[in-house]
């Protein structure tokens, strides 16, 4: 059961979606890369099930260690057509991040199913991808 990388972003003041949408995954691993000193800020994560809707807000502080984030799918969205969501990221509004810190955030999703080689698979409309 492997981790599927969703992408790497530089946090900013505006919401930015990771490039890869998420399926059924509820467990995420966050890896941060920066050059100290970073400044004073923390990360805010949210799930976007369709444009204009943000929910399941989570907070993560700067850390050199990997961070595990749990974002369960609400029952109302656990239906066909609503299962894929984007994970959005920004840092807090009053955060001060030094440009020299070059803060980068990588997010991975735990995938419960995999093929024989350990590659993650997803079933979409009856097809395996």
Q: What are the salient characteristics of this protein?
A:
0% helix, four-stranded antiparallel sheet, single chain, mainly beta
Tell me briefly what this model is.
The chain is mostly beta strands and 129 residues long. The chain is built from no helices and twelve strands.
Order of helices and strands: EEEEEEEEEEEE
Low-confidence stretches: none
Radius of gyration: 15 Å
Number of DSSP helices?
A: 0
Average residue pLDDT? 81
Q: Structural class per helix/strand content?
A: mainly beta
- Which range best describes the helical content: under 10%, 10-25%, 25-40%, 40-55%, 55-70% or over 70%? under 10%
Question: What global shape is seen?
Answer: globular
Largest sheet strand order? 1-10-3-7
Whole-Å distance between the termini? 15 Å
Number of strands: 12
Give the percentage of residues in beta strands.
35-45%
- Major sheet size, sense and barrel closure: 4 strands, antiparallel
Description:
The protein has 129 residues and is an all-beta fold. It contains no helices and 12 strands. The strands form 4 sheets. Strands 1-10-3-7 form a 4-stranded antiparallel sheet, with no helix packed on it. It has a 4-stranded antiparallel sheet with strand order 2-8-5-6, with no helix packed on it. A two-stranded antiparallel sheet has the order 4-9. The two termini are 15 Å apart. The model has no long low-confidence stretch (mean pLDDT 81).
């Amino acid at each position: 059961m492997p981790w599927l990388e969703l992408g790497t972003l530089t946090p900013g003041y505006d919401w930015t979606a990771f490039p890869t949408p998420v399926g059924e995954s509820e467990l995420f691993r966050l890896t941060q890369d920066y050059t100290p000193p970073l400044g004073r800020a923390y990360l805010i994560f949210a799930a976007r099930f369709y444009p204009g809707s943000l929910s399941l807000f989570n907070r993560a502080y700067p850390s050199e260690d990997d961070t595990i984030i749990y974002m369960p799918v609400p029952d109302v969205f656990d239906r066909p057509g609503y299962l894929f969501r984007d994970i959005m990221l920004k840092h807090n509004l009053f955060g001060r991040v030094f440009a020299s810190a070059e803060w980068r955030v990588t997010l991975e999703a735990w995938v419960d199913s995999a093929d024989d080689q350990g590659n993650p698979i997803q079933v979409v409309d009856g097809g395996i991808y």
